[in-house]
């Protein structure tokens, strides 16, 4: 990183701290004041000790009593400072963490699919689970740093006032200390960052393993995964310990240098006392001060490490999430999409996920309100990508997509998506009750509306059957709805779409086979759902394509053919005709309602 990058990073870090921490100015002010008060009382107690020795020397019992009491008094006052410092710094750190986690979560919701395709979930989790706490603890450690300048400057000033000669001798060691601190800090730099990266790898493996546990167990790959996890876990621990060892080296080295300074000062000071150039009490005071200076320098030494940690954690938080610009968002002058008919038009649309590798080329078609358009084609031909452009998960690179004549980029994203429901291939249900999952499509839905949607989606019977789900609509579905069968999950998802009552529907037919009865129920539910809505369906079933108003046949990102089933079959050597032969035909020979490919 060159200097300008470093300066830029520092600016970004300050911006982050300014936005999420410096809002609590009074809190930080009290915390800093407490920390400074704490170091002030440290300097004061050294002075009282020195006076106490003076009183001892001259045998002044009254002063002895007074100073003894004064020391107790100082420690009582310190109580408040210690409390203030501990609690308010911790509060500032916690508030920072709270706001950052919330901001990260909120920002993640605004980012587009393109971001989530690129970014590994583990790295994102690590940002929340590791970087935010690191930043928090770094802020809390400011409590050691805040009083350091006062300890060092105040201590040195009083030392010089007591004895310039002795100060000069003692201060010879200070540049040495500074040099060593500097060197050790440089060693630490970077290691913390690498440790965090490793932790993010561990998180990623954990994430992948948990979400892919079926595949892992079906391949009996548990041992392989355990070994992979252990390796990364071990590496993370090793790197962490490396960083701790370096830090552990820093602290005692500074202490040793401090001890050398104090012994040296004692030796020089002792000689001054013997030569009657300095009182014994002043020597005691001086040593006490020197100790404070060493503590302060130690704090300053840690400051660099702390700052590096703050910078590294902030950089990851900013780069991984907060500074990522959402590439899909409502334009400043976007209008709210009013009630719509559901007329969708693709005009000369080009799209690429990766620049230079076109996925859609010159796509143009129209879906009239209430029409069902089926998209078919080989895997990778671009079917899902077309579907993703309608709710504006991505923007076309060229051309336009319009709804009722409104370019999607000119309307607010929220108002557009309000009119669209998607039933994906793999149904995702959220933790919560079945009712919550159905009402997800319309938070204002009443129980009656939920039941009505479930009935229309052929889901009411199994939901209300006490032999299947004893808790009915209040059944808590597990993570991703795992305890429901595939067909049941699909019907809940259809109910979820129905309750939204959208004008536009996007269906990705499941390719996995359901048993005949389940298939019939799902198909009926889908037919009900499609009634009167403009529907784009990524079709895998013969019944869907036969009944569609139009079929788009995709090949290598282009619409190769389009028309009705009958029209397409008439094209000699047509792609659809071949597809029909290879993929759909067997359904005719073994007819069943909507059997999947
Ligand atoms: N997130 C992505 N990043 C990069 N390339 C992608 C991404 N998603 C899809 N692609 C590529 O875009 C092309 C079209 O993918 P798309 O998913 O639209 O095809 P599809 O016809 O729906 O395939 P399938 O029937 O297998 O679902 C493929 O070559 C695919 O590899």
From TrEMBL:
Membrane topology qualifier: Multi-pass membrane protein
GO molecular function, one term: ATP hydrolysis activity
Annotated localization: Cell membrane
Classification via Gene3D superfamilies: ABC transporter type 1, transmembrane domain, P-loop containing nucleotide triphosphate hydrolases
InterPro entries xrefs: AAA+_ATPase (IPR003593), ABC1_TM_dom (IPR011527), ABC1_TM_sf (IPR036640), ABC_transporter-like_ATP-bd (IPR003439), ABC_transporter-like_CS (IPR017871), P-loop_NTPase (IPR027417), Type_1_exporter (IPR039421)
Pfam families xrefs: ABC_membrane, ABC_tran
Record keywords, A-Z: ATP-binding, Membrane, Nucleotide-binding, Transmembrane, Transmembrane helix, Transport
GO cellular component term, pick one: plasma membrane
Main location: membrane
One GO process term, biological-process aspect: oligopeptide export from mitochondrion
Protein name: ABC transporter ATP-binding protein
Organism: Capsulimonas corticalis
